[in-house]
Structure formats: C-alpha cells, structure tokens
Amino acid sequence: MADVMVKWRDDAAKTFVNERTQEVSGEQDFIYFHTPGIFRTRQYELRFTDNLPFTLVTMEEEVAVIDH
C-alpha cells in the first residue's frame, strides 16, 4: 500500500508544514485533505511513496474571502 502526502507553506514561508498523509490501496477517483488556515498565497507539495504511476489530474481548493 502506498501513501499520498501533502504539506503546504503560506505567504512565501521558507518551510513546508503540516504534513497530512492518506493511504491509497488502489485506484482512487478522489482524495480529500483538510488544509485549514488563513493565507494570501499557498504553495503545496505532494509526494507519493511508491514507485508506481501517479497522476494528479485536478486539484480544487475551497476558500472564503475575509475582509481585512
């Protein structure tokens, strides 16, 4: 079994934080990661732990704009 891992950094931070892992046992149509926080920009890093084909077809992020 392989794992898909995601971590992120906000607002051009130097390091990625908050790694989340989800086990993958076969072909998946949808994997969900909860990545909360307040940010202006966010950059993600994805890793797949096995030496098998892996394709990220699309990625969606739901955001709420807050007034500051």
Report the span from N to C terminus: 44 Å
Q: Please count the helical segments.
A: 0
Strand residue content: 35-45%
Mean pLDDT: 87
**Percent range of helical residues:** under 10%
Could you name the ranges where pLDDT drops below 50 across 5 or more consecutive residues?
A: none
| Number of DSSP-assigned strands | 3
Rg for CA atoms:
14 Å
Largest sheet: 3 strands, antiparallel
Succession of helices and strands: EEE
Strand order of the largest sheet: 2-1-3
The chain-level structural class is mainly beta
Can you tell me the overall shape? elongated
Quickly describe the structure.
With 68 residues, this protein is an all-beta fold.
How is this structure best described in words?
With 68 residues, the protein is mainly beta. Helix content is 0%, strand content 35%. It contains no helices and three strands. It has strands spanning 2-10, 17-24, 42-48. A three-stranded antiparallel β-sheet has the order 2-1-3, with no helix packed on it. A hairpin with a 6-residue loop joins strand 1 and strand 2.
Please give a handful of descriptors for the protein shown:
68 residues, mainly beta, three-stranded antiparallel beta sheet, 0% helix, elongated
